[in-house]
Every structure is written in structure tokens, then in C-alpha cells.
Write a structure and sequence with these properties.
heterodimer; A: mainly alpha; Non-ribosomal Peptide Synthetase Peptidyl Carrier Protein, Chain A; B: mainly alpha; Butyryl-CoA Dehydrogenase, subunit A, domain 2; Butyryl-CoA Dehydrogenase, subunit A, domain 3; 3 domains; 3-stranded mixed sheet; 3-stranded antiparallel sheet; 11 helices; globular
Chain lengths: ~80, ~400
């Protein structure tokens, strides 16, 4: 799980354009409240698909699924990434 | 909202009467003088149509979104500005009905007041300094005081019917330290606000919507903040319902332009029976353009109602956002096209402002469509979503 969360955090650091350091946020912290804009969240989704070599389902492609490291990890688990 | 009840024929008939008897005879003057369609709104109040969407348990008519959309169409046919004022008011009501949350008595009470007093509600969503992005705010809710009272101050470049509304639904950042996209929506009464007008209102079309800029200052109780994030309100209700109701107004405008072109061709055919009539061919071409618009607008309404009644979570999905964004782009480009081609059918008598076949007002009103959340901005959003959405 730690390894997966580390990789999620790397993607967010690179593409999320947060207004704070991702290391200062807990796994359940709200990324939108930390400044991630809608456009940046799409780039995070694309980078996650690339980094984990998966495709999210349309039902997962919504704001709430990408609002925290935890919720992203759960979505990745649902599409078959092993924690 | 109750949105699967089908169309309430009685309410639509009332709206059609108001459109024909009140909106139509005043439409030219409303347009020429850029004045508020006060008679139409008074008639809508008298028939209690401003609270049509309010649920029955709060005293409203509990009308379906289909009914409201049909009313927008009927009003739009006779006076685009009247239709747009009605549409925008209903959008604010829909947001409150959908997102007041359980145990939020302030909004239940306010909706009862909308019923009893037929309050007209405007929105303050655009803001100077956000580049036209409704998903961002500069203004913020202040830190509440010990009594739970807070304030905001927002610079809005346009507030539709701002001088005439009884209350305003305003987007602001959740707190002074919140990010630009971390927004809430606040409903404030006019008496709780100071509205300082900015600039004038002399636009190309939709002149009766009377939408100058304002600096809006408000002091209110925190219970007046809708209890869910604006991002949710926007995705599930405000954006799709706006696109649906606006596009019904635009369809109404385009339909009347078509009807005027048709009346012109019929009159010409009567004058010269049996002679070939090039305008008649153009009219037939125009009908197919209008039917494309009607199909997109009607289908989007049905799709939204199905999702809203069934799998509401799907409204937040990117594929769904793309779908209702596409409605806005398609309808806002097709409606002025129909009006322009109606002008091509009618020729000079359509171009003149004082004939039964005038379509200048229709064309000017319809041209506002692409600016109401600029199509370029929606295309930019869609371009981004298309990179990740799967089935669209």
C-alpha cells in the first residue's frame, strides 16, 4: 500500500499543481481544497493511467474519486492494481 | 426536483397564454428600450409560476423539469428576454431544491417564502478576475462571528436582472483562506445586500434581461450557505439545468424566427399562386436546421431527467459533463444559424424591425447564446475531458 501511495503522490506532485507540498498532506486530505484545479485533475488521471498501466472506468471519472490519495488508491485497486 | 412527472399541460397552457397575451405585445418595446419585461414577470407571479419547481410539501406546484423547460420554450417564442429571466430564476430554485440538504430549515423556509411571495431570484456567478471560469472565485465568505454571521464582497461583471431580483444566489470561496476552486453558494435577500451598479446596459441582444455589473456586498447568517460544495451543485444541477433551460429559450427564439419565415413564404405564395418560389425551398432547408436543434434540445432534456431520477451519481461523471456541455455548444450555435437563415428567407422585410416578418431581434437575442459561459471556454474544458473520458 505504501508503495502505491508513494507513486500516487509522485504523480500528484508532478501534475496536480497543488498550492501546498503534497508531503504536508495526509492520505485523506482533500486535494481540491489544497488547490488542485479541474484541469490539473484530468492530467493527474491521465498520468495515473500511464504510471499504473490501467484504464479508469467512466463511472470512476468524477471529481470525488480523485479528491484524496486514499480515494485514488481505492479506485486503482478497483481497476486491478495490487496494493 | 420532481422531474419525471411528465409535462403538466395546465401549467404550460397558462404559460402559453402569458407568452401570447403579455410577453408578445411588449417584446418589441422591451428590446428597443432595454427594459425589464415587468408585465411578463408580474403575470408569471400572479399565476404562481415562479414557484412552480418548489416541491408540493413546501407549498409549490412540484412541477417537472419538462414542464419548466416547456414554459421556457413558450416564453422564448414570444420574448427571448422574458424566457431567459424565467429560465435563470428556475435554475436558482432548482439548485436550492436539489441541494438544500436534509435538516437545513433555512432553505425549506426560504422556498416556502418563494411560494408565498413569488420571489424572483438571480445569480451572481461571474466575477472580475477569474477569466470567466465559474469554477473559481476571488470573493470569500468571511470568518463567521460569534452569532454565526458572515459577509462577502464580490465584483460581478454582469448580474442578470440584478436591479429587479428579490434575492441572489452567489458563488464565493468557502473561507478567507480557501483555494479559488473551493466554493460554496450563498442565498441572500436584497435587504441583506448593498448592490453598487457598475457601468451601463446597452447590449446587442437579450436587452430586457437588464444585466449590468455590480459590486455586491452581503451580510448574512451561515445557514444561508447551501450545505454542499458548489462543485457538486454545479455538476449535478446548475450546469446541466442551465444548459437545458437556456437551450429551450433559444429553441423558442429560433422556432418563432422559422414561423415568421413560414408566414412570409405563405403570404408570397398567396400573392402569386402556382409560380415557383425560391424562398419556399430555403424555408424547407431551414426546417431541417430547426429540427436538428429541436432534436438535440429534446434529447438532452430526456437524458437529464432519466439520470436525475435514476442514477444521479452519473451526473458527476466526465462523460455526462461532456454530454451537457455539448448541448450548450450545439444549441448556442444552431439557434442563431436558424435565425440568420430565416432572415435569408424573409429578405428585406425580415431585416426591417417593424414588419410582421422581422427577425432582427431573434437574431440578436440568439447571438447572446455563445457568450453565456463562452463556448471557447466550454470547448477548452471538453478538450481536456475528452483526453480521459472513455465512452462519450
Amino acid at each position: 500500500m505504501d508503495e502505491m501511495n508513494d507513486q500516487i503522490r509522485r504523480v500528484i506532485r508532478e501534475h496536480g499543481h497543488l498550492s501546498v507540498d503534497i508531503d504536508s498532506l495526509a492520505d485523506d486530505a482533500d486535494l481540491y481544497q489544497a488547490g488542485m484545479a479541474s484541469h490539473a485533475s484530468v492530467n493527474v488521471m491521465i498520468a495515473l493511467e500511464d504510471a499504473f498501466d490501467v484504464e479508469f472506468l467512466d463511472s470512476m471519472l468524477k471529481r470525488s474519486v480523485f479528491e484524496s490519495v486514499d480515494s485514488i488508491a481505492q479506485a486503482l485497486t478497483e481497476v486491478g492494481v495490487e496494493a | 426536483m420532481t422531474i419525471t412527472a411528465g409535462t403538466d399541460a395546465g401549467l404550460v397552457a397558462v404559460a402559453r397564454r402569458i407568452a401570447d397575451e403579455v410577453a408578445a405585445p411588449n417584446a418589441a418595446e422591451v428590446d428597443k428600450e432595454a427594459r425589464f419585461p415587468a408585465e411578463t414577470v408580474a403575470a408569471l407571479r400572479e399565476e404562481r409560476l415562479l414557484s412552480a419547481l418548489v416541491p408540493v410539501e413546501l407549498g409549490g406546484a412540484g412541477a417537472s423539469l419538462e414542464t419548466i423547460a416547456q414554459v421556457c420554450f413558450e416564453l422564448g417564442r414570444r420574448c427571448g428576454a422574458s424566457g431567459m429571466v424565467f429560465a435563470m430564476h428556475q435554475i436558482q430554485v432548482a439548485c436550492m431544491v436539489d441541494h438544500r440538504g436534509a435538516g437545513a430549515p433555512w432553505f425549506d423556509d426560504y422556498l416556502r417564502e418563494v411560494v408565498a411571495e413569488q420571489r424572483l431570484i438571480a445569480s451572481i456567478t461571474s466575477e472580475v478576475g477569474t477569466g470567466g471560469d465559474m469554477g473559481k472565485s476571488v470573493a470569500a465568505v468571511s470568518e463567521p462571528d460569534a452569532e454565526g454571521r458572515a459577509t462577502f464582497e464580490k465584483q460581478a461583471p454582469t448580474v442578470s436582472y440584478g436591479p429587479h431580483a428579490d434575492a441572489f444566489l452567489t458563488t464565493v470561496r468557502r473561507a478567507p483562506d480557501a483555494e479559488p476552486g473551493d466554493q460554496v453558494a450563498v442565498l441572500t435577500r436584497r435587504e441583506q445586500m448593498e448592490m453598487e451598479p457598475q457601468g451601463t446596459w446597452d447590449p446587442l441582444g437579450m436587452r430586457g434581461t437588464c444585466s449590468p455589473g455590480f459590486v455586491a456586498k452581503a451580510a448574512f447568517a451561515v445557514e444561508q450557505i447551501l450545505p454542499v460544495p458548489f462543485s457538486t451543485i454545479s455538476a449535478e444541477t446548475m450546469t446541466p439545468v442551465s444548459h437545458i433551460l437556456w437551450s429551450h429559450v433559444w429553441l423558442g427564439i429560433a422556432t418563432d424566427a422559422f414561423d415568421r419565415a413560414r408566414a412570409f413564404v405563405k403570404a408570397a405564395a398567396k400573392r402569386k399562386p402556382g409560380e415557383p418560389l425560391p424562398a419556399a425551398i430555403r424555408l424547407s432547408e431551414l426546417m431541417s436546421e430547426l429540427s436538428l436543434l429541436r432534436a438535440e434540445v429534446g434529447l438532452a432534456l430526456r437524458e437529464y431527467c432519466d439520470l436525475h431520477a435514476g442514477d444521479r451519481a452519473k451526473l458527476a461523471e466526465m462523460a455526462t459533463i461532456l454530454r451537457f456541455n455539448n448541448l450548450k455548444i450545439a444549441a448556442s450555435e444552431q439557434a442563431p444559424k436558424v435565425c440568420q437563415e430565416a432572415l435569408g428567407v424573409c429578405g428585406i422585410v425580415g431585416y426591417k424591425n417593424d414588419t410582421p416578418f422581422s427577425v432582427g431581434r431573434h437574431l440578436r437575442d440568439a447571438m447572446s447564446a455563445r457568450l453565456m459561459v463562452a463556448n471557447e471556454r466550454i470547448h477548452a474544458t471538453d478538450a481536456s475531458l475528452l483526453l480521459i473520458a472513455k465512452e462519450v
